[in-house]
User: Fold this.
Amino acid sequence: MFHVKHEFLETFRRYSKILKQRNAALRSRQEGVLDSIDEVFSELGSQLDIMRKAHCRAVAERAQEALKLLSPEMSDFRLEYCQGWARKSLMGALKENREGDVLRGATAAGPHRGDISLLFGDTPARNMLSRGEQKVLAATLLLSQASILSERGEKPIILLDDLASEFDGSHFERVLDRSLELGSQVWISGINEPKSNEPHKMFHVERGVALEMV
Assistant:
């Protein structure tokens, strides 16, 4: 997130600080200060939520497009964002959970409880994908975020670690072609030379020393 929206990192740091302050107040049962803390906590948490939702939506759209090219049989993919609280507003969730938070000494609602789910239909990806398909999905998510950075004028370096061990030749070439389309520098580790007409260099690593192959 902080690579795409630079304001995210500062907001996240401020949120993390106020979360620690809130949890400290809960543990010491200083309920008198919670109202003022909750106002700032809710504002920062809501800002993080808005940025996360937008980023997850962008990644999901690009991932669905990429899977149509990389592995059409996996195109029924969904990335589901979970914000970290059940009520419509974060402030409403904080008020509802106040008593339980005091008993636990910890904050139960907020972006720190957020998550994403990777689904195919309504089934979690981890329950239905083979190891090779998991590699395809991981590569798709990586390329989706690289695509977002590329659209911002940045050229990320893409590292593909031993993909050939899990991919057949067709899937490997599709991932490599998509990486090169982004105009990125691509580093590939493995024991086989990838097939590409693009200018490239090869290095052999032995005992910690990298030698260029001529």
Remarks:
- The first strand starts at residue 77 and ends at 82.
- The helical segments are 6-27, 34-70, 90-104, 131-151, 169-181.
- The longest helix spans residues 34-70.
- DSSP finds five helices and seven strands in the chain.
